[in-house]
Amino acid sequence: xxxxxxxxxxxxxxxxxxxxxxxxxxxxxxxxxxxxxxxxxxxxxxxxxxxxxxxxxxxxxxxxxxxxxxxxxxxxxxxxxxxxxxxxxxxxxxxxxxxxxxxxxxxxxxxxxxxxxxxxxxxxxxxxxxxxxxxxxxxxxxxxxxxxxxxxxxxxxxxxxxxxxxxxxxxxxxxxxxxxxxxxxxxxxxxxxxxxxxxxxxxxxxxxxxxxxxxxxxxxxxxxxxxxxxxxxxxxxxxxxxxxxxxxxxxxxxxxxxxxx
Length: 261
Description:
It comes from Hirschia baltica (strain ATCC 49814 / DSM 5838 / IFAM 1418). InterPro entries: DUF1365 (IPR010775). This protein is of the alpha+beta class. The protein has one domain. 15% of the residues lie in helices and 36% in strands. Strands 10-11-12-13-1-2-5-7-8-9-14 form an eleven-stranded mixed beta sheet, covered by helices on one side. Strands 3-4-6 form a three-stranded mixed beta sheet, with no helix packed on it. A hairpin with a 5-residue loop joins strand 7 and strand 8. It starts with 12 loop residues before the first strand and ends with a strand. The N terminus is likely disordered.
């Protein structure tokens, strides 16, 4: 695994991610695609951004408060509210970062984003996984070990499913998360387990690179349309499942609570 050289912790990073989904059960389906994410450092002082990445305004890529944090506050203020709501110790949140898919030419869709909380030695202590469905309903899941001990790659963190994500699956079951996160690499494996064994396995993994104007432009050529492309891929997989005979379920109301702990 190559590492990104000399990337400042106060600089935004690019994650060239590989995304894989495999559905279990009677109607099987699997797909693999590339997606680019931005790791954005959260603090009172905004980091210097390369040309092509903007904050809260139109741009080739943009990180907008309205696209995360439920549009209720700035990213920094929302991160502080998460620390308070989740009772994350101060020492376990010395470094806060947001891994998210940037808006592309004004269009945004974040199927999954990750709020990373690390101690001063860069050990991962907590992750808030923010899930958004195509109906723009959103719910977050707190992932942590007892007493906010460092999260290791061998750890398994389980939480009940609360948000309807796919019209071809129920709300039954739970998620089992496996994280492997360093300053140079990010990997998450999510196993959705159901009583009737028709869940799925999803992974998102890749290396962090320095985020520069040329890497943004390269991404636009390599993965055209950005977030709009991802939405199109999701809809295409839904069509495939329908053709294969998967049962369609209406979208229920989202949970009243924004966060599960």
